[in-house]
């Protein structure tokens, strides 16, 4: 039994004394102890060595009273396992020497046995669970097929992912075949994570908001929903689609347990779109962590007042930025933990 099950209760829609809190990208560059390891090992080595990945996962939990841990890894380990050789380059980010832009290249992409190619992630889960000692739940995650396609086709990060979009519109068959392969791999990957002991999974659709509502259905949601259907049989699923407020109403009809929202949507609007029975997660503007701790505290309390304490998980509206002072991240978390309804 997990000692602090606030997060799981909120996912199940059960009564809680206060909302649970965690931060997207909570294991990251704003922490000096993360930077110390970053100086010694390159990014994918940190993902691939279970001792390192589990250590980085628990780093923020040693500092802050968080209600969940998220396994340190990356969404790009999935395409890597499919034979797509991503690197992480200094000041560029994810980088692919030969981006995928033709049907022949898509046909050459494999749907691997995840036990062989991603065994290091499952070992990292085992090691992390030992370190967590059942204190808080561990979240597993994957990128959405569309978001992974974006990086595979573009070959690196982008503001609008124009090349990825034109690939989908010029070569829809190839795009759908790639999305299909990513979907199949992701389902077996996440199912295995659940067998290994993660308590919930989150699907990050970081670039869903680049698509029109109609294209979102065809190129993103259709595939996310297949993952949700498959995983909801074995665990709680959270879907976070950045910029995807236009799809929330439809997402709320799925078997997801919670939906993540970014800061461009008001709590009231989000609740109206998803109805009363869906847990919402979010949506503090990550840049707002540049305000003073006192202002952060006040804004977090207002955020909870507006979302309400039930069916709600306090979080940022996207990942924490690398230049946030540690004490400001701490102010965010403590403001949730200290929240009392007036
Ligand atoms: O949330 C957590 O603490 C768990 C770890 C986590 C990472 N990446 C670690 C990481 C998670 C959940 C991710 C997901 C991820 N990775 C997403 C979806 C979420 C989002 O932010 O939209 C995406 C799009 C990626 C791809 C990726 N990986 C990018 C764009 C970058 C940043 C490149 C840069 O230099 O800014 C990464 C690298 C990455 N993944 C870092 C971390 C902590 C920075 C690592 C470093 O440079 O040391």
Task: Please name the CATH architecture.
Answer: Alpha-Beta Barrel
**Cofactors and ligands:** coproporphyrinogen III
- As a percent range, the share of strand residues is 5-15%
Question: Total number of helical segments?
Answer: 16
Would you give the CATH topology? TIM Barrel
Describe the structure.
The chain has a single domain (6-341), classed as TIM Barrel, CATH 3.20.20. The strands form 2 sheets. Strands 1-4-5-6-7-8-9 form a 7-stranded parallel β-sheet, sandwiched between helices. It has 16 helices and 9 strands. The relative contact order is 0.14. The chain is 49% helix and 12% strand. The mean pLDDT is 97. It starts with 5 loop residues before the first helix and ends in a 5-residue tail after the last helix. The protein is α/β, with parallel strands linked by helices and 342 residues long. Coproporphyrinogen III binds at residues 24-29, 38, 43, 70, 72, 74-76, 88, 93-94, 141, 143, 157, 204, 206, 319.
